[in-house]
Design a protein that fits this description.
It is a single chain. The protein is α/β, with parallel strands linked by helices and 289 residues long. The chain is built from 11 helices and 8 strands. It has an 8-stranded mixed β-sheet, with helices on both faces.
Amino acid sequence: MTVKPDWLRVKAPQWQRVGSVKEILRDLNLNTVCEEASCPNIGECFKAGTATFLIMGPACTRACPYCDIDFEKKPQGLDPLEPVNLAEAVKRLNLNHVVITSVNRDDLPDGGASQFVRCIEETRKLSPNTTIEVLIPDLCGNWKALEIILQAQPEVLNHNTETVPRLYRRIRPQGDYQRSLQLLQQTKKLTPQTYTKSGIMVGLGETDEEVRQVMIDLRQVDCDILTLGQYLQPSSQHLDVQAFITPTQFNDWRKFGESIGFLQVVSSPLTRSSYHAEQVRDLMKRYPR
């Protein structure tokens, strides 16, 4: 499937604003998932002065066939200046809410947990009023590493389930569905006040019933926030799109998610894990902890 339906067409970005954000990122030697993963919302987000920072990258230790992040390069040592530079970027961009994510770093004993902590700590020094969301890998089930991250008290802990269990072997060959659920469950056990979040991409051959079951599974581990979005093929070398899901179906999933207790469900074709993530600030006011 190569012809995108009208609802997936995005407006051309205003490159003046995009350029200014890119200039800051280049000046501070930072990566963003917006660029590395070829996100379709890059123009809108950069225009608004927001970005999702990608730390410990851009090379990843996993080779998920849906993802455009490079896995062929050998991961490098951690940049000791990255946390300081990230904090400076947050300050320059005047962000109210920041999302910090990473490549998978299975080569590190703690999966990169300590680098997440340093990024959180440095950001709090320069931008104490900015809320922080971390979008983390599964840490290979290392719950001690998870505890290290949670001790830094990010307001939101995000970990994507990505797809339905039946498709894991093809889509996330190095991942484990139950391990992802356990990570979210452990987060609530260790820090009940933390808002937990997860995301699903659709259009890869899953059924409506399977998507709804994943949503139920996430609620059973007390996940608070859910994002659902359309998978788009980054290149011909990646997995093919099996179906373009209609906005009506996304709206049905949103209603179902709200009916089973999610505090927030962001569900649309162009939704991504950190798309409009700043809306969590309003959610925190409505459901304070």
